[in-house]
Amino acid sequence: MEMVVCDTKEALGSRAAADGAELVRRAIAERGRAHIILATGASQFEMLGELVAADRIDWPRVTAFHLDEYLGMPISHPASFRKYLKERFVDRLPQPLVAFHYLDGEADPERECERVGEILLAHPIDVAFIGIGENGHLAFNDPPADFQTERPYLIVALDEACRRQQLGEGWFATLEDVPDRAISMSIRQIMKSAAIICSVPDRRKAEAVRGAVQGPVTPDLPASILQQHPQATIYLDRESASLLS
User: Fold this and answer.
1) Ramachandran class of 186: left when φ > 0, alpha when ψ lies in -120 to 50, beta otherwise
2) Domains along the chain with CATH numbers
């Protein structure tokens, strides 16, 4: 795992998007297509804003996949990750993608895991754009995360720290409103990505960053697994890097 520290979250977003865009261009140049994963949340605002504006990306050769979604969440809800990705990414692209494979939170969850999982297995991922949660989660794999399953998508329970983060970021009015289950891409599936661009701004993520970068690899801090990826880069601002030695 490599680390890039920027002065501000805006600079972080710009650098992560630029590096990720180059990886997408390279995949298209080498194979005629690119497959990517996109995360959501406040940590991805700046990066996504820069990525959709990146030049020289042939978006009609790109297929994208959804990282996670709440169970029972309609796309009309302000916290819907489908809504987030449609409005902040898909609708802002200068050209349409080959496809964006959303996770439908209102569908039968087991069938939805199988449906999108089968598509994902046929499209090896070139670049995964992800973040790290305040509790160290990757996607919605809260601690202790399952490092062993080969299933592409899982139904997971969300712990209180994860749910409080969603409340703190303003997606829900009360903690009781935050769903306690979700569909999430598995740890092993994320790690199968050829390259990982991990954007982690803000002081509230500093403890998780320290554990992920300097601590042992453990399911109790899921993001620590990134230490074992041959081409993972974590992008930090001064605040999120503040506890690193």
Assistant:
1) beta
2) 2-237 (3.40.50.1360)
pLDDT digit string (tens) for 9-37? 999 999 999 999 999 999 999 999 999 99
Q: Does the model's pTM come out above 0.70? A: yes
For residue 101, list its beta bridge partners.
Answer: 65
DSSP three-state, residue 124: coil
Q: What is the DSSP pairing of strand 127-130 with strand 34-38?
A: parallel
Neighbours of 90 (CB within 10 A): 17
Judge contact between 32 and 116, C-beta under 8 A: no
Q: Which single residue is written with the structure tokens 């409005």?
A: 87
Q: Which two tokens stand for residue 101?
A: 């494979």
- E strand spans, 9-160: 34-38, 62-66, 68-70, 99-101, 127-130, 153-157
